[in-house]
């Protein structure tokens, strides 16, 4: 890893970097699997749901509303259309539960952000549904700690280049921190920025990358966001 | 209306100002009404669907995904949960049709934007689902004509103030153009900006305002976007 001395801007991913998120999808998924267990095996449900999610990304993008619609499509498919509306209403209600679930910050997040504020320009860059992300940001209580907040539909090289251009940031001064190698780390390295990977307990399989994608890639991996300050001061 | 001589920035709403949108919701709604006509009257379906949309705005925000989920909930309610999955799949498919529908620009839009480009800073400010709006903007072919594009979850005074602050625009130099008195005109007038109202053929009832809300409000109403240039040059 190149040293971090010349960093002026630190950007953070939100879901599963600042607060717990994927875990809530897995809880909803388990309720879905349990409800369909009389028809098919758990593995079939999970596989078919993932197929539907991938198929629907092009229509619905990321986020909980698309997830609810994918659960509904999967249940219809797995029951040959026989599933009744009253069961499908449950999926919508679970989705609403998830949307309204309290935002649980990951341990140490507030202290780390407070400590960095004023020393670096701080940006929050999160991917997903605009309405859902805005609601989580507001409820997190963290919004005022960031200089800029960017909610994007996809995190690729072009997304990061466009944000850096917008705020007139040189990539060599830019550090991205997140839990997804695919969305937070690789595209930032590819445009000449720096990146710190902090794996989450649960990561959606869609965010996985192959070993060859990260071979020779120059990033730091930390076990917790609380290790960030000591690494910046090294 | 105060004169428009000192305007430096012109912002445009997108749905039903630059391209046709609400009409597509009404087509989908009519298919929905027709499918449920064996159970209940058309008026009941429309009223119940609107109730569901309003109830779900707090969970899902604006946009087609929330609309699909509201259709599903309404059909479940109106059939006492008996509606079958195979019928509900139709609503999802109609939603996908609508999402992928070609973007039809309103007549004159390209000419007007081309004529204004370079003379004014141009901003597109649109409310709704991030993924859906980005897709429509990309397919419209208009993105390169705007200096900035802002996709927001709600259009109120705070939204406009925040955008003007971000781009360092004085409200008295700012003109907003749109088809919704509630979202495009009143909040801009309320922060000291100027506004031109161009009614669309079809406007969602949720965007309606009362006569008392617009009494004494100082805005221009035009019958078509093609009338914009002559008004700016007056």
In short:
Two copies of one chain form a homodimer. By secondary structure, chain A is α/β, with parallel strands linked by helices.
Description:
- 2 copies of one chain form a homodimer.
- With about 230 residues, chain A is an alpha/beta fold.
- Chain A has 2 domains: about 140 residues, 3-Layer(aba) Sandwich (Rossmann fold); about 80 residues, DNA polymerase, domain 1 (Orthogonal Bundle).
- In chain A, about 50% of the residues lie in helices and about 10% in strands.
- The first copy, chain A, contains 10 helices and 6 strands; from the N terminus they run E-H-H-H-H-H-E-H-E-H-E-H-E-H-E-H.
- A 6-stranded parallel beta sheet of chain A has the order 3-2-1-4-5-6, sandwiched between helices.
- In chain A, helix 1 packs antiparallel against helix 4 and helix 2 crosses helix 3.
- The first copy, chain A, is elongated.
- Chain A starts with 8 loop residues before the first strand and ends with a helix.
- In chain A, about 40% of the residues are buried.
- At the A-B interface, helix 3, helix 4 and helix 6 of A face helix 3, helix 4 and helix 6 of B.
What is the number of domains of chain A? 2
Helix content of chain A: 40-55%
Give a quick account of the main beta sheet of chain A: strands, pairing sense, barrel closure.
Answer: 6 strands, parallel
- Tell me the β content of chain A: 5-15%
Helix/strand order of chain A, N-terminal first: EHHHHHEHEHEHEHEH
Shape, per Cα inertia axes of chain A: elongated
Helix count, DSSP H or I runs of 4 or more residues of chain A: 10
Instruction: Give the low-pLDDT segments of chain A.
Output: none
Structural class of chain A: alpha/beta
The CATH superfamily of the largest domain in chain A is known as HAD superfamily/HAD-like
Q: Architecture of the largest domain in chain A, CATH level 2?
A: 3-Layer(aba) Sandwich
- Spatial strand order of the main sheet of chain A: 3-2-1-4-5-6
Overall mean pLDDT of chain A stands at: 93
Q: What is the level 1 CATH name of the largest domain in chain A?
A: Alpha Beta
CATH topology of the largest domain in chain A: Rossmann fold
State the assembly state of the protein chains.
Answer: homodimer
């Amino acid at each position: 890893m190149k040293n971090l001395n010349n960093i002026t801007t630190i950007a953070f991913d939100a879901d599963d970097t600042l607060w717990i998120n994927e875990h809530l999808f897995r809880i909803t998924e388990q309720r879905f699997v349990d409800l369909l267990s009389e028809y098919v095996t758990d593995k079939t449900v999970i596989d078919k749901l993932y197929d539907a999610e991938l198929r629907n990304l092009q229509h619905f993008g990321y986020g909980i509303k698309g997830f609810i619609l994918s659960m509904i499509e999967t249940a219809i498919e797995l029951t040959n259309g026989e599933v009744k509306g009253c069961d499908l209403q449950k999926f919508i209600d679970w989705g609403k539960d998830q949307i309204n679930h309290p935002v649980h910050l990951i341990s140490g997040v507030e202290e780390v952000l407070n400590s960095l504020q004023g020393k670096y320009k701080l940006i929050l860059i999160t991917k997903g549904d605009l309405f859902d992300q805005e609601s989580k940001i507001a409820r997190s209580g963290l919004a005022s700690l960031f200089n800029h907040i960017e909610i994007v539909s996809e995190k690729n090289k072009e997304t990061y280049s466009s944000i850096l251009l917008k705020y007139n940031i040189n990539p060599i001064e830019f550090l991205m921190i997140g839990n997804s190698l695919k969305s937070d780390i690789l595209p930032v390295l590819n445009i000449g920025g720096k990146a710190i990977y902090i794996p989450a307990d649960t990561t959606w399989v869609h965010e996985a990358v192959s070993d060859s994608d990260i071979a020779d890639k120059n990033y730091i991996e930390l076990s917790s966001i609380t290790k960030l300050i000591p690494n910046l001061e090294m």
